[in-house]
Design brief:
about 0% strand, about 70 residues
Length: about 70
């Protein structure tokens, strides 16, 4: 696997995993007692995006390593 192809695969996997991780642990303002006036009721209270980006990077790294190993030892 060449470096540009590896980066493209990692980037694509990262976005797929991110969209899979984003809904975990999200509470909307509608579900929470503290509702900010003038905002959408479906807006998340605390999205914790940095934590989700870190989890996404960790999961993607494991998936990419498994894919790389499979492609190299096939």
């Amino acid at each position: 696997m060449t470096l540009p192809m590896g980066l493209a695969i990692f980037f694509t996997l990262w976005w797929i995993v991110l969209f899979s991780v984003l809904p975990f642990g999200v509470r909307s303002q509608h579900e929470d007692v503290d509702f900010a006036a003038g905002t959408d009721p479906g807006a998340p209270v605390a999205p914790r995006l940095l934590m989700k980006a870190a989890i996404t990077t960790l999961v993607t790294s494991v998936l990419f390593a498994a894919l790389w190993w499979f492609m190299e030892h096939q």
